[in-house]
Amino acid sequence: MNRSLKIIMVVLLFGLLIMVRSYEDDLFYDPLIRFFKVDHSTQMLPEFDIWKLLMNVALRFFMNTTISLLILWILFMKKEIIKISALLYSAVFVVLLMAFIFLIYSKEMGGHLALFYVRRFLIQPLFLLLLIPAFYFQKKI
Asked: Most CB atoms within 10 A, among 49, 61, 126, 130?
C-alpha cells in the first residue's frame, strides 16, 4: 500500500472515531455524559438502567477498538501487532469494566473522579494514542 493511500485511510478512520464521539448522544445511552458536564463533586449519580449503560459502554468500546485496530493495521501491516493490541484491548476492557462496575455501585456523594476517568478510558480511544508511539518506537529498535 503506498504512503498517500495509507495517510488517506488513517485520516478517514480517525474521522470515523471523531464521528463516534460527535454522535455519542444519538448512538449511545449514557446518562453520565450530562452528569459529568456539570459540577458533579457534590451530587449523587443520576438514576439509570445499569445493564443498558454497561451494554452501551461495551458497544462503544468495541466500536472504538475495531476502528483503532484498523488504524494500527494500516500503519504497521503486521499480524503480531494486531494480535498483541487485541490482547491488550481485551485485558484493558475486562479490568476497566470491573473497575467501572465497582465504582458505580460505590455511590458516594462526590468522589466520582475515579469513575469519570475509568469511564473515559472505556468510551474514548485513548489507548490508541499510547499504542501508536509504542509500536513506532519498537519498530525503530
From this structure: 61
The SS3 assignment for 39 reads coil
**Integer Cα distance of 67 and 69 in angstroms:** 5
Residue type, 135: F
Separation CA 76–CA 66 (nearest Å): 15
Global pTM reads 0.90
Q: What is the biggest distance separating any 2 CA atoms in the chain, rounded to whole angstroms? A: 54
Q: Where are the alpha helices (DSSP H) in 23-78?
A: 24-27, 32-37, 50-76
Query: How confident is the model over 38-62, as pLDDT tens digits?
Result: 766 667 888 899 999 999 999 999 9
